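SEQUENCE-TO-STRUCTURE ENTRY
===========================
What this section holds: a protein sequence and its matching fold, both as plain text.
Tokens: labelled as protein backbone structure tokens, with as many entries as the chain has residues.
Question of interest: how does this chain fold, as expressed in backbone structure tokens?
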Amino acid sequence: MILSLFPSRTMSAYMAKMFLTRTFAILGALVLILQSLDLLTESNTILAYAGNGDAEIWRYVSLRVPQIAATFLPYSVLLGSILTLSQLNQNSEVIAMKASGLSAHQVLAPLLLTGMVVAAISFAFNDRIVTRATSTLEQWKKVNYAPLPIDRGDRSNVWVKGDNNLIQVQQIRGRGDGAQLYGITVYERQDRSLTGILTAPHGVRDGDGWRVDNAERFTIATGQKAKVGSVVIGHNIRPDQFTLAHVDADSMSFGTLYQAIGDLQVAGRQTEALEGALWHKLSGPLSAILMPLLGAVAGFGLARSGKLFVRAVIGMALGFLYFVADNFALAMGNLGAYPPFLAAWAPFLLFLMIGEAVLLRTEE
């Protein structure tokens, strides 16, 4: 029953191979061009740090390429769909399939199934590779590409205000009362004036505050630095104020972001923008299924009528309109104008109906 929805096995494999070859060829070309252009602007900054060389350039490339590939994979799927269907149309292969009794949906079935496989690969790639590369690259940029041992599961460079003081922590490991602080700097203030700077290498939760070890205090008035040993700082600062001070959805996997949203909700903080980003981690990769449907207009109609190019342009316009609508909906979701689910899924569902309407109106 399910196999009857597809052309023959040979034809399905032929179409899937054409689709995948063109999609990833376009993606490879885009990544190569865009990465080269990106290096023109970033290489000077990377090499500005003394000691950086070719190894750091290649490290930057290894972290940046996954981001570019994830961003432009949906565009590549769209163009791959249009090129595949245009060639099938131009060679009269679509006409042959329809003459054998196949409907337009059956002709598209191999591409839609292949799109599902691409969507699954895209989700796994984004969740396991892109998020880690983004997290590492963002932390590396914060230190201007200086050497930095990075634990990708930790928070870095977090600022918190408490007891009228400003507290900077270079790295936070763990969650809740088990959180540990590393590289602590406390800017002690009185009436908005800086009175001293306390530094400590390590701190842990102690009652309603944080106990730091081997602390040193520099007093502004005297200009002297003295060791103060173990001291408690940051009274009434909750662990989530450190661990959830900055939640970057792009640097977190689906499961980690879901957990962070739950922690923020328990702490009574707003999570609508993050919820939209969480849903978009699912709807974004699924656009690979939508692209063959939007590009299907290029695969039907008579190629000799001279309108094949016009049909291809219409397919590209529908695809790019989807990306515009998707970015607009996400922006409105971040502003709170759209509910999170609507911001992530409305463009996908809307253009799914538009693609079906165009296909039914013109071919079915």
Observations:
- DSSP finds nine helices and six strands in the chain.
- The beta strands are 155-162, 165-173, 180-190, 193-206, 209-219, 224-233.
- The longest helix spans residues 9-48.
